[in-house]
Specification:
Number of helices: 2
Radius of gyration: 20 Å
Distance between the termini: 77 Å
Helix content: over 70%
Oligomer: single chain
Order of helices and strands: HH
Strand content: under 5%
Number of strands: 0
Length: 84
């Protein structure tokens, strides 16, 4: 009798995780919820479990790299605006 509720509990936990994971990941790596879900789906489809695990960091990496590349330019532009 106790084991009949076990599958229901597992489904409940999985459903809760599917709602919360995109919010947590998107806040951690500064991505939208849609981008987080889409990257996990694509990564999981292409590479299975490993792809799903690596999908969010791989998706967030170009955004972080571009931010670091553009940082000196933003600083130069801020200095030019301050002079004017």
């Amino acid at each position: 009798r106790r084991f009949k509720s076990c599958p229901r509990y597992v489904c409940h936990c999985r459903a809760r995780a599917l709602r919360q994971e995109p919010a947590v990941y998107s806040a951690a790596v500064n991505l939208s919820g849609f981008a987080t879900i889409a990257s996990v789906l694509v990564g999981g489809t292409l590479l299975g479990v490993v792809g799903a695990i690596l999908a969010v960091p791989v998706t967030a990496a170009p955004k972080g790299i571009m931010a670091e590349i553009m940082k000196p330019r933003r600083e130069r532009m801020a200095a030019l605006r301050a002079e004017a």
